[in-house]
Amino acid sequence: MNVGSREKFIAVLRSRAVGEALRFVVVGVLSTAIHYGIYCLLLGLLSLNVAYSVGFVAGFAFNYVATNLFTFRTLPSWRNLLGLMGVQGVNYLIHLLLLNVFVAMGLPEHVAPLAVYAIAIPVTFVLARWVFRT
Q: pTM of the prediction?
């Protein structure tokens, strides 16, 4: 990599959008781990959809605070709470639909959420960025 290319690469890494995307990934991994961990713990005790929903709400609560303070470096407000609730409402419906489709297709209940995350996470980033940047 020559000096000019290296400087351009560093400039891209320092750009606001790239920084937000990287922080979004960190927050997403942590909130997804919270969601998945709670789901797995409750799966034997509650129905599939209830266990998934409880995990989703816990992950959402963490995600809201971390998305504000860390990802987009904004202060919590009613506007972005309601906006993120709208985004996560759509996201929740996508999650439940995909979860049930994947389980019906034969994926084990403890594996199906991983396939759901692969589809839903990119959609969530686009919607969340719109909420926090408009």
A: 0.78
